[in-house]
């Protein structure tokens, strides 16, 4: 069980050999792959290419998680990762699993499709898959879980040059509120002044309370935040007169919760952010998120999300 904790290329190669030769149990393989995903923070490219053959055939969801996490950690340390042929080859493999628009031939493919979407999101460098992800998000034949996962795959990626697709989803009142809120969150990860103005204008005529409540609480938190990374957003929003039309029951309506503290004197602080998202079809929360980040001496440290 401790093989992955060694964290060497030889240990990764041994795991692949034991897995592909059938000399390891499924339980052992799951433990190894989980350990690879969570404990190897400075992987080499050889580790990634060593595990790549495990994606052939019926790869397990843990395999997707392990390899995509290695790619994310590798690319965090290496500049120019977006043009690395081996990395992009694996990202193409994940993308090909999505079949143009995540079309399912049978229900058994649902979990595999979900794993591929999450793997693309884990890499943080799957911008080439953006057209496919948008087609998946707009595919009305899919479950809401898959459509939301397609948008969540953008969470670690660089800012999109064109936000038209996201704005189209956000502004379409015929789309489920859960999907619209996730489109909004992707947009607000890299907010442009023009995008903010468009969102504020939309809020003034928004008819869906779940969407309006979430956007209102999120914008309100941005106005009040002391998080140093959001001060520019705060400055833009302070010039807007937003009506508290959507200040609704916290138990029934989607909302963003943010608490932060930063001391310029000590050059440290922290923030906690949470999203609770409902669908207009039910007052039972559909999804939630909790993010804890510390700001220490100019460095941002994310403890968990």
TrEMBL record:
Keywords: Disulfide bond, Glycoprotein. Residues 1-288 form the Vitellogenin domain. InterPro entries: Lipid_transp_b-sht_shell (IPR015819), Lipovitellin_superhlx_dom (IPR011030), Vitellinogen_open_b-sht (IPR015255), Vitellinogen_open_b-sht_sub1 (IPR015817), Vitellogenin/Apolipophorin (IPR050733), Vitellogenin_N (IPR001747). GO terms for molecular function: lipid transporter activity; nutrient reservoir activity. PROSITE patterns: VITELLOGENIN (PS51211). Pfam families: Vit_open_b-sht, Vitellogenin_N. PANTHER family: VITELLOGENIN 1-RELATED, VITELLOGENIN-RELATED. This is Vitellogenin domain-containing protein. It comes from Capitella teleta (Polychaete worm).
């Amino acid at each position: 069980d401790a093989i992955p904790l060694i964290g060497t290329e030889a240990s990764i190669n041994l795991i692949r050999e034991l897995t592909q030769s059938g000399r390891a149990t499924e339980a052992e393989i799951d433990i190894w792959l989980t350990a690879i995903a969570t404990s190897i923070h400075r992987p080499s490219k050889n580790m990634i290419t060593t595990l790549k053959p495990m994606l052939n055939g019926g790869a397990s969801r843990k395999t997707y998680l392990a390899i995509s996490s290695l790619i994310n950690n590798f690319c965090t340390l290496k500049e120019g990762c977006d043009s690395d042929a081996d990395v992009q080859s694996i990202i193409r493999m994940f993308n090909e699993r999505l079949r143009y628009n995540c079309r399912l031939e049978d229900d058994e493919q649902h979990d595999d499709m979900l794993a591929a979407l999450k793997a693309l999101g884990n890499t943080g460098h799957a911008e080439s898959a953006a057209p496919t992800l948008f087609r998946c998000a707009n595919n009305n034949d899919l479950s809401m879980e898959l459509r939301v996962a397609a948008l969540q795959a953008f969470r670690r990626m660089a800012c999109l040059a064109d936000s038209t697709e996201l704005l189209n989803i956000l502004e379409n009142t015929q789309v489920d509120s859960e999907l619209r809120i996730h489109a909004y969150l992707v947009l607000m990860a890299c907010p442009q002044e023009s995008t903010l103005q468009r969102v504020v204008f939309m809020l003034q005529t928004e008819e869906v309370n779940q969407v309006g409540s979430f956007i209102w609480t999120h914008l309100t938190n941005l106005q009040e935040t002391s998080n140093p990374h959001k001060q520019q957003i705060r400055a833009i929003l302070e010039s807007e007169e937003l009506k508290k039309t959507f200040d609704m029951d916290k138990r029934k309506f989607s909302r963003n919760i943010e608490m932060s503290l930063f001391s310029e004197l000590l050059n440290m602080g922290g923030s906690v952010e949470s999203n609770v998202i409902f669908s207009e079809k039910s007052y039972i929360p559909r999804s939630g998120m909790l993010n804890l980040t510390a700001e220490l001496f100019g460095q941002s440290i994310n403890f968990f999300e």
